[in-house]
Hints:
By secondary structure, the protein is α/β, with parallel strands linked by helices. The protein is 37% helix and 11% strand. It is built from 8 helices and 8 strands. Strands 1, 2, 3, 5, 6 and 7 form a 6-stranded parallel sheet that branches. The protein has a two-stranded parallel sheet with strand order 4-8. The longest helix has 19 residues. The two termini are 27 Å apart. Zinc ion binds next to loops.
Amino acid sequence: MNIKALVEFLLGAVILTGCGEPKTAPENEKTETAPVSVQTVQNEALTPKKHTVDPTKPVMALTFDDGPNTTVTPRVLDALEKYDAVGTFFLIGDNINDESAEQVRRAYGMGCEIASHSLTHSYMDKMSADDIIAEMSETSKRIKDIIGVEPVFFRPPYIAVSTTMYENIDMPFICGFGVNDWVSSTTKEQRIDGVMDAAQDGAIILLHDFGNNYSTAMALDTIIPGLQEQGYQLVTVSELFEAKGKDPHSDEFRNKVISLVQ
Ligand SMILES: [Zn+2]
């Protein structure tokens, strides 16, 4: 097997095992990097809408990376709201500005979970401890400034990890089953089929709400009711762990990217 074939094989293996994050940056990724002047809520926590989860019934977590923005993020929220579902948003700190922060507030108010996807969406496995800490603390601060609480889960950009990251990031690293929705040529139908094929109790699905990823937002209009018809409750990542009786900080999940089921 030559090197190219080996790399393709390994990438394929990563996707098959459910850690589907692109090894190249999604298109239009870092489009919103304007200086941040987010209005703070002075640490006054918003009150999220309550929803109940029945742990005896199947659960799945839809997760969305690379927001927030004012284009696709609101469409994802519209779809979740329409079907009384929630999801988890792994935010890029640098994408937070006055306008996109409104979408974060809306998501949190709906009962969605807000998590961290770093400040700059760089390959953090190449970073020093100081740089890693700066990425994480600034993103957590920006999120807390909006919703009043800090994120408790982290998804590494490109699922690229290092020992230094594990040593310096005190949040569980969350993976998920990807459906190539970061590739613009993946059709809406392929995104729907990918998620429906991956459906199982305890699954975390890794999708993207980056700025021009409308196909994923449109696919949700089929995915969400389709999963609900099959009896799945769509819950946040925190609720997924709770429903499964798992502690994400336990030794079982230390120093690894977590997929609850494969
Ligand atoms: Zn990402």
